[in-house]
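[Discussion] Sanity-checking designs against the backbone

I'm trying to build intuition for which residues belong where. Below is a structure token string of 259 positions. I'd appreciate it if someone posts a full sequence so I can compare it with mine line by line.
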């Protein structure tokens, strides 16, 4: 005969707030909330959960803005400090963030890694590709209002036009102290001076061949990777260097003239 004693339900252990392990950066708020629910569904009250998540965030002491990772906070703090730790090896211009330096370096190398899948046109920045795609979707023409009076080439920014015009200008104010050769841009002079110094700071990680300029290294690396970022536009052929693509396109134009 069963006794009248009601068994006491075993009490489940209460979930403890999750603490990041040593060396681990805190996850974003949404993923932290989901992780807490998976660890102890129904056990952790919402106010306690939110308090734990807030306690893990990284706050800027200058403006109070919060970040999910300490690296993001450190990157943000350069806005207040004015610190620019990332320097361009070509022209010595400095930047607060490494991503800004990477974008700037493409002005020296001519690299355009972002390709439009519809027309094959390439861009140095993803934002320029998105702007181009929006213009194509709405039927509007690209806004490149600054036109070179010498060759007709157009630019989206006036500073880009001014930089381009030095190609046509006879003015070359930057002179090499070793040989007297003059250049229109200071960055070109810096590149030239490395030739005197024998400074080949850019080395291929595959064959260890050194180069004076990062642009030469990038072009060389395509011989290893097989990358061909420059399409013909007239046919399906692609090339690993822009000059090769331009030379190939002229064969189409000559064929059209003979026809």
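Best answer:
Here's mine. Compare freely.
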């Amino acid at each position: 005969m069963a006794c009248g004693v009601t068994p006491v339900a075993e009490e489940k252990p209460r979930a403890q707030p999750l603490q990041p392990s040593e060396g681990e950066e805190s996850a974003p708020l949404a993923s932290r909330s989901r992780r807490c629910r998976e660890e102890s569904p129904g056990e952790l009250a919402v106010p306690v959960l939110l308090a734990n998540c807030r306690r893990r965030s990284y706050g800027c002491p200058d403006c109070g803005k919060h970040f999910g990772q300490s690296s993001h906070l450190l990157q943000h703090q350069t806005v207040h400090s004015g610190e620019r730790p990332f320097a361009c090896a070509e022209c010595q211009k400095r930047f607060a963030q490494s991503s800004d330096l990477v974008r700037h370096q493409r002005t020296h190398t001519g690299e355009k890694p972002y390709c439009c899948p519809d027309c094959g046109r390439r861009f140095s920045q993803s934002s320029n590709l998105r702007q181009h795609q929006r213009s194509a979707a709405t039927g509007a023409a690209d806004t490149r209002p600054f036109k070179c009076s010498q060759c007709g080439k157009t630019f989206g920014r006036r500073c880009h036009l001014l930089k381009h015009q030095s190609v046509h200008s006879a003015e070359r104010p930057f002179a090499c102290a070793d040989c007297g050769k003059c250049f229109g841009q200071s960055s070109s002079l810096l590149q030239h001076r490395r030739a005197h110094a024998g400074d080949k700071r850019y080395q291929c990680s595959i064959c260890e061949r050194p180069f004076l300029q990062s642009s030469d290294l990038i072009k060389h690396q395509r011989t290893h990777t097989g990358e061909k970022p420059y399409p013909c536009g007239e046919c399906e052929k692609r090339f690993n260097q822009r000059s090769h693509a331009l030379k190939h396109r002229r064969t189409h134009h000559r064929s059209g003239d003979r026809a």
